From TrEMBL:
Subcellular location: Membrane
InterPro entries: Pur-cyt_permease, Pur-cyt_permease_Fcy2/21/22
Annotated transmembrane regions: 31-53, 59-80, 101-121, 141-160, 167-187, 207-229, 250-275, 295-322, 334-355, 361-384, 413-431, 451-471
UniProt cross-references to PANTHER family, sorted A to Z: PURINE-CYTOSINE PERMEASE FCY2-RELATED
Source organism: Streptomyces cathayae
Membrane topology: Multi-pass membrane protein
Protein name: Cytosine permease
Coiled-coil boundaries: none
Region (Disordered): 493-514
Main location: membrane
Alphabetic keyword roster: Membrane, Transmembrane, Transmembrane helix, Transport
Family listed: Belongs to the purine-cytosine permease (2.A.39) family.
Length: 514
């Protein structure tokens, strides 16, 4: 790893050498919290009000979704210290050395979605604030310039890599938090915690679908980090206590109550004083926020948009470039980051100026999370059954274009994990219910409530453990202590063969971790 923030990081997804793994759980907290302590999270926090909930109902939905999402996310931080590589590469142990591309694909979609949300919301806030303060015209050219400059800054930070990204997030965590707290004074006179919303009582047939839908949108934020958490925790030493690593990931998400509640509270003010910005056909939280904000708070809003958006964009794009270079090994991490960054910027411009994606943001994010959550269950349960033991060399077989190893299974595919993911994600999509956007064939079975995520999570847990019990994995994939909760078969493990295209700095013999 580079010794200075101004040196470009050269590590890809090969195992990080022990001498370079100097990060702490606090650094993981900073990156995870900094990536979510942003304007984009405020936009997600406004959805309970958009869905018609009162402030207190919206707060309950937010806390429910955030705690559930943080609990689901926390175990995903353990793979980085254990294996010194990304979570997608670590998934080779449970989906096979070829099946790990599922994680890379999910990471790519998630990154594009949240990178786009970040650039759109931050760019709109910057242009809107500049218009109110300096009279800058709100034209297509102005918005395009803001998006281009902002996305370019994100790309530069990602190219420099982990150390520079960590520096940005150290600043972002403190600065954005202080500006959000300042916002409490800016809107205190207009905020009414008794905001009643659109539902006279919880007996309204639309209340529970709105409540569950709000909680799921909040939950999507922590779950969106699942594929990326190992990108940052891989720099944490393997001997670090697991509870500290998981605690850092969990607390980072709980801390995002700050931007979530900011979005929720200000949305209730917008709904009361500037209701035209919450037109169901084209809601505009950013425009409404600028309309109700006092003049002295325009500059802090612009700073939140710049600092927070930069933090979110870098955490999303960095992991995608890392994953892409692990699938297409002819690209270095820097080349892959530039390629994905340019494509994402193109997607942002198409979506902003040629398509109407206001409602589609929540749809796209919900569908991605619905597919990602079962994958996370496979990973977490796989970690438990393996007792946290992995073979770092066997994890790198795909990246080195070799064959065999502990995680080769059937021609590089572990059908147990793959079948669990495919079936669970597919069934969950059938139960999706996003009125006016996407409703699955079974979406109305729960009186209009979207139960896709709970269905996917429960089905994945039951199905994966059942398949491991009925069709045991080879004893060679488990460590010296053997499997936990399941049995192992006596099937032989093929040795690794072929000349590696690159030699990762990994120990010659795998050792228990933790």
């Amino acid at each position: 790893m580079a010794t200075s923030v101004t040196e470009i990081e050269t590590h890809g997804v090969e195992q990080i050498p022990d001498e370079d793994r100097t990060a702490r759980p606090l650094d993981l907290f900073r990156l995870a919290f900094g990536g979510a302590n942003t304007f984009a999270t405020c936009v997600l926090g406004s959805f309970p009000i958009l869905f018609g909930l009162s402030f207190w109902q919206g707060l309950a939905a937010t806390v429910l979704g955030l705690v559930a999402g943080a609990l689901l996310l926390a175990p995903m931080a353990l793979f980085g210290p254990a294996n010194g590589t990304s979570n997608s590469v670590s998934s080779s142990a449970h989906l096979g050395v070829h099946g790990r591309v599922v994680g890379s694909f999910l990471a790519l979609l998630t990154a594009v979605a949240f990178f786009s949300i970040s650039v759109w919301s931050s760019g709109d806030a910057l242009v809107g604030g500049a218009h109110r303060m300096l009279g800058v015209p709100e034209s297509t050219l102005t918005y395009a310039a803001a998006y281009a400059v902002f996305a370019g800054l994100v790309l530069v930070v990602c190219i420099y890599g982990f150390r520079f990204m960590l520096l940005v997030n150290k600043i972002a965590v403190v600065a954005a938090s202080a500006l959000f707290v300042l916002g409490a004074f800016a809107f205190a006179g207009d905020f009414d915690p008794g905001y009643a919303g659109a539902f006279a009582s919880t007996a309204d047939p639309l209340f529970w679908p709105s409540f569950i839908g709000s909680a799921l949108i909040v939950l999507s934020n922590p779950v969106s980090f699942g594929a990326f958490l190992g990108d940052w925790s891989r720099y944490i030493p393997a001997a670090t206590p697991r509870r500290r690593v998981m605690g850092a990931a969990f607390l980072a998400q709980i801390a995002t109550l700050l931007p979530f509640v900011f979005g929720l509270a200000t949305a209730s003010v917008i709904a009361t004083q500037a209701g035209k910005y919450f037109d169901p056909a084209a809601p505009n939280y950013v425009g409404g926020l600028l309309a109700i904000a006092p003049g002295w708070y325009f500059l802090p809003l612009c700073l939140i948009a710049l600092i927070g958006g930069l933090s979110t964009g870098t955490t999303a794009l960095y992991g995608t470039g890392l994953d892409f270079c692990s699938v297409f090994t002819r690209f270095s991490r820097v080349q892959a980051t530039v390629l994905i960054g340019v494509l994402s910027i193109g997607f942002i411009f198409v979506g902003r100026f040629w398509l109407n994606l206001t409602q589609s943001i929540s749809t796209f994010a919900t569908l991605i999370i619905t597919c990602t959550a079962p994958w996370m269950i496979v990973m977490a349960l796989g970690y438990v059954t393996r007792r946290g033991w992995y073979d770092p060399e066997a994890l790198q077989v795909f990246n080195q274009r070799r064959t065999g190893g502990r995680y080769w299974f059937s021609h590089g595919w572990n059908w147990r994990g793959l079948a669990t993911w495919l079936v669970s994600a597919g069934v969950a999509l059938l139960f999706t219910n996003l009125p006016g956007q996407f409703v699955g064939p079974l979406g109305n079975l729960a009186d209009g409530m979207d139960i896709s995520l709970p269905v996917g999570l429960v089905l994945a847990a039951v199905l994966y453990l059942a398949l491991l019990a009925l069709f045991p994995e080879p004893r060679g994939v488990y460590g010296p202590a053997g499997p936990r909760l399941v049995k192992a078969s006596d099937t032989e493990v093929l040795p690794i063969s072929g000349d590696p295209q690159e030699t990762p700095e990994a120990p010659a013999e795998p050792a228990p971790v933790g």
